[in-house]
């Protein structure tokens, strides 16, 4: 039997997914629900989130990972958590370092790094209590290879990589059963660039035009596979790119 557990309703395992209103988060909700997980979905865009929840048989709860009160309210409504997918994140702007927009940097760090910290701290006791809990942090190729004009997002995703590694080391040292995985996608055609460019559709489309792109479903399949593994296995990192990206 896979790590998704028993087919009986009382034993159905619970996956919590942040940033689940679109893109990789929404695709992960579909993939995990089809694999037999109960899904609890969090995002700021509640109307879109509710559509995903309705389609997956999941539960939608408003969530802003940059707001501690929102995280606390979200976590208080969850009785059980076997899997946490820290997917909420994103980039703002594409400026050179000397032209840094500090508000962009603060948003990226608060969302990608501190948002992951808030969610993990809030749900870690429940993940430990599950007996074989799993945390999957969605990183980025930007956390592996810096690129020109990407210093703010690079710094945030490098920070996420560090905290992911430290968390795994500390869970092992403290004798807890929680596994920790980081999945680092390369170029995935989602709303990512639309957010980065403040809704400039033409500029966002140019990022993916005439290229071989991954889909959100591709990354969701990786999430589903990692979550299906038996509890004695931990996938440390997965670096996933389209064939023409290196």
UniProtKB/TrEMBL annotation:
Does the record bear Oxidoreductase in its keywords? yes
Name the domain of life: Bacteria
Q: Name one GO molecular function term.
A: oxidoreductase activity, acting on the CH-OH group of donors, NAD or NADP as acceptor
Q: What are the record keywords, sorted?
A: Oxidoreductase
Q: Which Gene3D superfamilies match?
A: NAD(P)-binding Rossmann-like Domain
Q: Which family does it belong to?
A: Belongs to the short-chain dehydrogenases/reductases (SDR) family.
What protein am I looking at? SDR family NAD(P)-dependent oxidoreductase
């Amino acid at each position: 039997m896979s790590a998704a557990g028993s087919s009986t309703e009382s034993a159905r395992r619970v996956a919590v997914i942040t940033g689940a209103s679109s893109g990789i988060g929404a695709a992960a909700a579909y993939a995990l629900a089809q694999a037999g997980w109960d899904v609890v979905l969090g995002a700021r865009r509640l109307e879109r989130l509710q559509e995903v929840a309705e389609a997956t048989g999941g539960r939608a709860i408003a969530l802003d990972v940059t707001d501690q009160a929102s995280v606390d309210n979200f976590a208080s409504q969850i009785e059980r958590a076997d899997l946490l997918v820290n997917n909420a994140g994103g980039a703002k702007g594409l400026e050179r370092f000397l032209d840094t927009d500090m508000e962009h940097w603060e948003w990226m760090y608060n969302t990608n790094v501190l948002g992951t910290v808030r969610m993990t701290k809030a749900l870690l006791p429940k993940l430990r209590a599950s007996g074989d809990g799993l945390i999957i942090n969605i990183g980025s190729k930007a956390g592996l290879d810096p690129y020109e004009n990407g210093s703010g997002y690079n710094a945030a995703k490098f920070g996420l990589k560090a905290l992911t590694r430290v968390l795994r080391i500390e869970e092992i040292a403290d004798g807890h059963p929680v596994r920790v995985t980081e999945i680092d996608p390369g170029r995935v055609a989602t709303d990512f660039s639309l957010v980065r460019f403040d809704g400039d559709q033409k500029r966002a489309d140019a990022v993916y035009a005439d290229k071989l792109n991954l889909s959100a479903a591709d990354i969701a399949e990786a999430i589903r596979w990692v979550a299906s593994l038996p509890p004695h296995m931990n996938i440390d990192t997965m670096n996933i790119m389209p064939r023409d990206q290196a």
